Automatic annotation (TrEMBL):
UniProt-listed SMART domains: LytTR (SM00850), REC (SM00448)
Natural source organism: Erysipelothrix larvae
InterPro entries associated with the record: CheY-like_superfamily (IPR011006), LytR-like (IPR046947), LytTR_DNA-bd_dom (IPR007492), Sig_transdc_resp-reg_receiver (IPR001789)
Name by which UniProt lists this protein: Response regulatory domain-containing protein
One Gene Ontology term of the molecular function aspect: phosphorelay response regulator activity
PROSITE patterns for the chain: RESPONSE_REGULATORY
UniProt domain Response regulatory: residue ranges: 4-122
Amino acid sequence: MTINIALIDRDIETQEFVHSYLNSQNYTCSTRLSLNTYNTSDDFFYDFPQVKPDLILLEVDLPDINGLEFSNKILTSHPDTYIVFLTSNCRNINEAFEHNISNYILKESIKADLPIVLGDVLKHLCSKIFQKVTLRTEYGPADINCEDIVLIQYVNRKPIIYLENDTINICGHSLKSIYKHLNPTQFIRPNSSTIINMKHIKSICKNTIHLYNNNQLISVSRGRYTDIRQRYIQYCLQVTNNN
């Protein structure tokens, strides 16, 4: 999965730092960050129909348009876009938040603040992007809520998704391709034929996964046990912290 980021800023030093920082990040095993840089809003709007960024890093004082005016134009047609202001002062910040700006970064502290602000925005973006997965079924394309998935298994040469109260036969997808569209902090692949939503795990013991409300025991392939157990512990800690 790719998260598209647009940087609209005339300052070469800012462009170079943002580009360097994003290139140094490996956000998740299945998420790639793609950056497009623009000097003016005209350049950006020319590319916008093709790029459709998930996140915009926006210099407030552009020569051809005010940052608030620019944001209103974007959010009116694409309200789910995240916009972070890059500014040299705080004079428009309160008004910016009234216009649903996600956050702001002072240019004088961009090296310290960019990782914090960007990390928070990307966390929310990934959470939103991973909420649903669109897959081909025997009845046509279907949007499936990831939270509803208990496990996915490869049975008779095709994936079957087991929901809490239903099953869905998937056509034209491999288990590997489905796994790439799932949140890596919530789903694990303990063996080559199974994907599990960790919220349904009761316990992991002796290379075997026990699920709630399911008598089936899922085996963990040799060599995957340590990684699977560590990821499950991290998931449990995350759930505890969120609560």
